[in-house]
Specification:
Elements lengths: L1 H64 L5 H20 L3 H28 L1 H38 L3 E4 L2 E5 L2 E5 L2 E5 L1
Antiparallel strand pairs: 1-4, 2-3
């Protein structure tokens, strides 16, 4: 009888105090997951703003260089590049994807060649191209630095709440460049 009483009392204590600890732990996990979700949404917003700003930078650049004879080649190559990249994302056949990648590499080479040629012919083109690339590179650098900081802080905060999280790299096109940005993925608690 005494053993039965001790057993019942043990079960009572486990249910009375143990579930509160489990609830607190689940609450921490839920809090961490919400924090990760909120940070990822903020990162996505920053990415969207950077993409929009880069599109405007590139549009302004294309408008500015239209007056330079031969610059229309660069604009049309970048437009073809965008179409081909969209096709590559949708392509499932590996042979066709390889052909698209080969054409994209050729486009990059053509753009570099055309830019180098036009830089020698037009001081305005050279200065405007350098300005565009510097502004675009700074935009990408700022985005990467901001999102990496947000990710690091959130991963640390999630760890304090008992959730393991890691960077989940996301490939993002900003103007004509592809970059990796680092949202967060929870991997365990």
């Amino acid at each position: 009888m005494k053993k039965s009483f001790v057993l019942l009392f043990s079960i009572f204590l486990t249910l009375a105090f143990g579930t509160g600890a489990f609830a607190a732990e689940n609450g921490d996990v839920e809090k961490a997951l919400k924090l990760i979700e909120k940070t990822n949404q903020a990162i996505d917003t920053k990415i969207d703003k950077a993409v929009a700003k880069a599109d405007k930078l590139q549009g302004d650049y294309f408008s500015d260089i239209q007056s330079v004879k031969g610059a229309d080649v660069i604009v049309s190559l970048r437009e073809e590049q965008s179409r081909m990249e969209a096709g590559l994302l949708a392509e499932t056949d590996s042979d066709k994807a390889a052909a698209i990648k080969e054409r994209l590499a050729a486009i990059d080479a053509e753009v570099i060649s055309a830019e180098n040629s036009l830089k020698q012919q037009s001081e305005f083109f050279a200065e405007r191209t350098a300005q565009f690339h510097a502004e675009l590179d700074q935009l990408i650098y700022d985005l990467d630095k901001q999102t990496a900081g947000m990710t690091a802080k959130t991963i640390e905060a999630a760890a304090e709440l008992g959730v393991t999280a890691v960077c989940e790299w996301k490939h993002v096109k900003i103007a004509h460049k592809w970059v990796w940005i680092d949202p967060i993925q929870p991997v365990g608690s």
